[in-house]
Write a structure and sequence with these properties.
Elements lengths: L1 H17 L7 H11 L1 H4 L23 H10 L13 H11 L5
This protein binds heme C (HEC).
Heme C (HEC) binds next to helix 3 and helix 4.
């Protein structure tokens, strides 16, 4: 049992190390979220603006990071565009954070 857990941890660490570029930073993503996103999407991901997806219920999150990156960069209807305000790195950090909001 312990060996299986250790083996899984080893595989996980190897996968993280092998990933191209730095892994997304959810701590930075949290800071970006509180500053730029929480006003509409809510502090805990329960949206406070009508029409904004509820991330606590995984709304709109069943899409690849690349699709979410494009929406956040370019904006979408009532949501402003973040290109020029946030770097792609910051947007990817915040996407990683969105994926932790599930309740
Ligand atoms: C002014 C309010 C507002 C702010 C601020 C805001 N959003 Fe949104 N967001 C919305 C609304 C409204 C939608 C739904 C847009 C639509 O599809 O009609 C949305 C949609 C989304 C989606 C789903 C996109 C898709 O492809 O379906 C994501 C992901 C998202 N927002 C992330 C963020 C992040 C990350 C931030 C901060 C960097 C942010 N939003 C800031 C209002 C906002």
């Amino acid at each position: 049992m312990m060996r299986r857990v250790a083996g899984a941890m080893g595989a996980l660490i190897a996968a993280v190390v092998a990933a191209p570029g730095p892994a997304a930073d959810v701590v930075k993503g949290n800071q970006v979220y509180m500053m730029h996103c929480a006003a509409c999407h809510g502090m805990s991901g329960v949206s406070v603006m009508p029409g904004a997806p509820n991330f606590a219920r995984l709304e709109r999150l069943l899409q690849p990071d690349t699709a979410l990156l494009a929406s956040i960069r370019n904006g979408r209807n009532a949501m402003p565009a973040y290109a020029g305000i946030l770097t792609d790195r910051e947007i990817l950090d915040v996407i990683a954070y969105l994926r932790t909001l599930r309740q």
